[in-house]
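Example record

The entry below shows one chain as it appears in the dataset: sequence first, then structure tokens.
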Amino acid sequence: MAERTLHGTGATPRSGVGTVVWYGRDISLPDPDDVEVEPEPESQRFADAVDTARAELESEREATAERVGEDEAAVFDAHIQFLEDPTIEEAVETMIGEGHPAPNAVDAAFGEHIEQFEGMDGRMAERADDLRDVRDRLLRLLTDGERVDLGDLPDGSVVLAERLTPSDTAQLDPERVAGFATVTGGRTSHASIFARSLALPAVVGVGEALDTVEDGTAVVIDGDSGEVLVAPDDSERAAAASDSGAAVVDASVETTDGRHVEVAANIGQPAELKPAVDRGADGVGLYRTEFLFLDRETPPSEDEQYEAIRETLDMFPDGRVVVRTLDIGGDKQIPYLDQPDEENPFLGERGIRRSLDPDSDLFATQLRALLRAASDGAGDLAIMFPMVATVTELDAALDALDTAAADIEECDADAVDVEVGVMIETPSAAFMAGELAARVDFLSLGTNDLTQYVMAADRENERVGDLHDPTHPGVLRAIHQTVTAAHAEDAWVGMCGEMAGDPDLTELLVGLGLDELSMSAVTIPEVKTAVRDTEYNTASERADRARLAATRSEVHTTLDT
């Protein structure tokens, strides 16, 4: 038996065993009383640090996009924006002009904004961690601080940290790192999402008890149970070391009583296609087209988009590929588009709201590319509209699709008949699921956003982390209502949020009537195995009890029995 077991939230259904390496930032600031500051050279030091930091961020963004995906890499764009924030820059320059050393000025200027963000609600509170990341990067450069190279750790390292930022996690090499655990964080945090993309064992939100684990200690990271085993015995070490996950299932799967459930992959960039195929994905349940628009000076052409979609269809000649139209806004910024500076961007101009108004030309181009790809060769393409909240929005999007089809010369008539669907991410869409489903072929539940909107709880705000749980009865009832209303209109229902990739919840989701589950490739074998082990009638009865529960604890009791 292990010396002790610490409990947190499992981020990836994988286990790893290794030796603890603590990661943190210990930056010593100069004592202003001991430093005679000349503003001009100190200001130049600050400018040089900003230039170097920008180059680092751009390099890390490129590496992250290649290794993990464009969706995950987009967070570096926000870091660059903070680095170049004129308000912060002015505050730093003012303090330097008043005689403060550059490191102290950076620490104070960023500290004021960090405190402001920490006092906000929802998604904006998440920005505090991004600011800390940028601040610490500048301080390291200004103080010649040594930066731990997380990409070059000894083999078998288990990284422990207070928190891991996106730029930290992106450096982790799965070939060397056996896993990580953090004091803070939740299942839908950036670090957790990166861990799943890298198939890296991870446990987050362990709490202060993690601080008691010393460097060099042997530990097991169990990303399935959410446990950190300190000083494990030989059998525990062997079990963790031999964990390679469930066997890959290439064939489609059904429950023990014959209900078919499609298990598909979420794709954020071309590099993720082969891993999805290798891990047995039936198709693509969410193809994020944002990567085509990022890290460039101008929008992609119709032909570029056509080629990217054709590549994906060719990888899944016998499977369905669900392509989500451009979903920007919120935390997804594209420099060459005129995006407003909104106080609460997640309740602002994003998704279909932009496609129907300021980005209507881009929308039309993208729809033409998709229809061309659908009519030209093998593969089953479906088009999905994001962030729909009203029937009026959907009708306008369908009109745009009809117009795009008419614009294509010599278009195959079948192209107009591609499956069309809607993301269910807002309470309004869940309430209006029947009316939406009557107009389309399918609905797909984006549970990350749906949960935060139903529960009014930002998924990155740890202070409301308990509320951002898709197993709350309110969220389960929204899912059930969506499925019931869609099936009544002969539309199928999928799920492409993080909830879909949790094998512990597969029985619940099958019982709620989901026809398709789409996830990061790493968990596809586990979910397929879980579907095969599920009896639909039993799962349906248990799901009914869960959604009718009054509290989350009652839901979990139902699921555990």
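Notes for this example: The chain has 22 helices and 17 strands. The chain has a mean pLDDT of 87.
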